[in-house]
Amino acid sequence: MEENTLISEAKQYIVVKLDDEQYGIDISFVDNIVRVQPVTRVPKAQSFFEGVINLRGEIIPVMNLRLKFGLQPKENTNVTRIIIIKPENNAKIGILVDEVREVVTLEEEDVEKVVHDEHVVNLLGVGKYRDTLISLLNIQGIISEMDNA
User: Fold this and answer.
1) Which of 15, 86, 130, 135 lies at 20 to 30 Å from 30 by C-alpha?
2) DSSP assignment, residue 40?
3) Among candidates 61, 38, 59, which has minimal Cα distance to 51?
């Protein structure tokens, strides 16, 4: 019985919030999620680059995703988190987000791919989960853009 030979590929995403928008980060890139800690500023860095943190003896650069996306700066709260990302073949990097919500599993058919142009380089697509939409982040694109800046 070969009724369903097409295998749907499900992926897990960590859902984070920036203002009222929800974004998904492929869980395979996530190394750790930590509370906000003191950030050491680095002179002449990009405007969205917060600085570096010392996480268990490892120096990790931290990017403020709000500033990266052109949103207004916001005070950190008790739900603000730094997501430590470990992209393929790259060093770890921290991404500052307003809040970490949950982990969701999206099937391939739940994801609408986006047409790539210079305005949507940071997104892979939009996921539909229950009654909400989640913008899926292109972590490799965001990181490589930081490396090139």
Assistant:
1) 130
2) B
3) 61
